[in-house]
Write a structure and sequence with these properties.
With about 250 residues, the chain is an alpha/beta fold. The protein has helices at about 40-50, 95-105, 110-125, 145-155, 175-185, 225, 230-235, and strands at about 1-10, 15-25, 30-35, 55-60, 65, 75-80, 160-165, 190-195, 210-215, 215-220, 240-245, 245-250. The chain has a domain at about 85-160. Helices cover about 30% and strands about 25% of the residues. A hairpin with a 2-residue loop joins strand 1 (about 1-10) and strand 2 (about 15-25). It binds adenosine-5'-triphosphate. Adenosine-5'-triphosphate (ATP) binds near residues 13, 15, 37, 39 and 41.
Length: about 250
């Protein structure tokens, strides 16, 4: 599992996100995409997903050119957007919601979908830490953090080898974040997991590579080469506060 960004130039509105940028995301592993608000993390994901066309360059997934095409990505990538377009008032329980996600997925033949669903759903819900007593609750009754966990579970049952999560830790409380970080570490042992985060240190023990975006610049490499004062200064500018040996990123998340 490999995503190659080849000489990629991305422009959104007036803003240049990256120019002539080349990087290879290799899995299994965890790749963190960091950068201040508006740096272009979501834009990069939407470009990888074929929902936005780059101004230049190509995107290859497992050597297949998928640039600007959502169709070619089918069954290869699961994506969790930062903001959901799923109405919270759907009259479905947690379990029914997950069943719908499986039944609607055309990856499996219809007859198999029913058979696959029970175990897959139970595993995914347990993995993200949604307790069994919630499975029969209406999704409208879930808290923001529980709903976020459900959305993560939904990306996992699609069983793709590549998973992209846009700020999956937003809405999750501090204790839950640690649990989710461990979960992402576990997932990244088998899949290529790419996620954006405003709290890079939390996931650092599991991170194979970091992509730092900001001010039209991109730095990609091993965590120790990217999370340096020099790079973070260029990416975060004035949001970077240094207190003795401690660096604090003061963005709005
Ligand atoms: N629909 C849009 N049309 C035009 N420009 C947009 C659109 N959405 C976002 N942008 C601009 O694209 C740039 C990158 O935004 P993007 O949402 O990708 O950043 P981000 O790093 O994901 O930010 P955040 O951390 O706040 O989620 C910003 O300058 C933003 O204003």
């Amino acid at each position: 599992m490999k995503i190659l960004l080849e000489n990629l130039t991305i422009i959104r509105g007036e803003k240049k996100i990256v120019e002539n940028f080349t990087a290879e995301f290799n899995g299994p592993g965890l790749i963190q995409v960091i950068g201040p608000n508006g740096a272009g993390k979501t834009t990069l994901f939407l470009t990888i997903l074929g929902l936005l066309k780059p101004a230049g360059g190509r995107i290859l997934i497992d050597n297949k050119d998928v640039t600007g095409s959502t169709q070619k990505l089918k069954g290869m990538v699961a994506y969790l957007p930062q903001r959901f377009e799923i109405p919270r008032n759907l009259p479905l329980t947690v379990f029914e919601f997950m069943e719908c996600c499986i039944r609607l997925n055309s990856k499996w033949p219809r007859i198999l979908r029913r058979k696959l669903s029970y175990d897959n759903i139970v595993n995914a819900l347990k993995l993200v830490g949604l307790e069994e007593q919630l499975w029969s609750s209406k999704i409208s009754k879930l808290s923001g953090g529980q709903f976020q966990r459900l959305m993560i579970a939904r990306t996992l049952i699609l069983e793709t080898s590549i998973v992209i999560l846009d700020e999956p830790l937003s809405n999750i409380d501090p204790e839950g974040r640690k649990m989710m970080a461990d979960l992402f570490g576990k997932i990244s042992r088998e899949k290529l997991l790419i996620l954006s985060s405003h709290d890079p240190m939390l996931l650092m023990p599991y991170t194979s590579k970091i992509l730092a975006l900001g001010g039209g610049q991109a730095y990609y490499g091993a965590p120790q080469d990217v999370v340096t004062k020099g790079v973070l200064n260029k990416i975060y500018g004035e949001c970077l506060i240094e207190v003795k040996d401690h660096i604090h990123i003061a963005d709005w998340h």
